[in-house]
Amino acid sequence: MNFTYTENTPLAPYCSMKAGGYAKYLVLPKSESELLGAVGYFKEKNEKYIVVGNCSNLLFPDGLYDGAVIICTAVRGISEKDGFIEAYCGETLSSLARAACDASLTGLEFCYGIPGTIGGGVYMNAGAYGGELALAFVRGRFLSKNGEIVELTRDEMGFGYRKSIMQTEPLVLISATFKAEKGDKAEIRAQMDTLMAKRKASQPLEYPSCGSAFKRPEGHYAGALIEQCGLKGVSVGGAQVSVKHAGFVINAGNATATDVISLLTLVSDTVFEKTGVRLEPEIRIIK
Q1: What is the Cα–Cα distance from 91 to 116, expressed in whole angstroms?
Q2: Could you report the per-residue pLDDT of 215-260, keeping only the tens digit for each?
Q3: I want to staple 111 with a disulfide (CB 3.0 to 4.6 A). Which of 97, 145, 236, 265 is the partner?
Q4: How far apart are CA 16 and CA 210, in angstroms?
């Protein structure tokens, strides 16, 4: 066994919401080899397992996750050649943006400040400010359900709004390659700084959260609907609809995962009752 694990480990310290239960086994692989070894080991033991990144858009319910949680934030490495950037699953989306900027490549500025990793970003086709990963994605290396390493191109990824094939197929991203265009480094840096300033001005970054709590409903904005329904500042336990941006649910103080899930349900039901629009959580609740 080329990796180590701990047992009955709290997950809240590893999750952006700083809430959630604990894992029967917790693995923090530091390389592709350790990641592949961990998946193979728990498969062989017939243990349930999940491979995740920064846990910035997901929530483990209170109680026990009866299996292995494999957190890949230390599986890192990033390189650029001829406009192509290859990044391992544990690299952050901000690191991807910085690598593109360093190489005077434009098109990935929107990634700057998104708190997730490459793995999580590809899983949900992360995006912001009019950009999304699908536009730059070229190919990815994956571990298949059969334990084989396979390569998928953009056309094979089933990308859509906050969607990819990874949500329906048991694929584990190892690394991904993105393509960006030549640009002016100073302009790229300025655009990244502008987007970061927008985030800081409009989002409650001083509190633990999972980013946007709900997907954007067609023809509407989730935050505007929530505010329109008078839900800004509404709380369940320690979870609160942010008064700074109604599209965010924050941990305002010792929130449990149950608090967060209950508040998401309350907001979705209230908005549906008052507007007829059903908000779907963007936060992934792990079963």
Answers
A1: 9
A2: 999 999 999 999 999 999 999 999 999 999 999 999 999 999 999 9
A3: 97
A4: 6
Residue 162 known to be catalytic:
yes
All domains of the chain, ordered by start, with CATH?
5-71 (3.30.43.10), 78-187 (3.30.465.10), 204-285 (3.90.78.10)
The band of 1, judged by pLDDT with boundaries at 50, 70 and 90, is confident
Residue 34 structure tokens: 């350790």
DSSP 4-37: -EEEEEE-GGGSTTS---EEEEEE---SHHHHHH
Q: Determine the Cα–Cα distance for residues 132 and 6; give it in Å rounded to an integer.
A: 35
Q: Is 76 a catalytic residue?
A: no
DSSP 117: B
pLDDT tens for 183-195 read 999 999 999 999 9
Residue 81: count other Cβ atoms within 10 Å of its Cβ: 9
Cα maximum dimension of the chain: 55
Pick the catalytic residue from 141, 154, 162, 284: 162
Separation of alpha carbons 166 and 122, rounded Å:
8
Q: Which of 212, 242, 268, 284 is catalytic?
A: 212
Residue 132 a catalytic site member = no
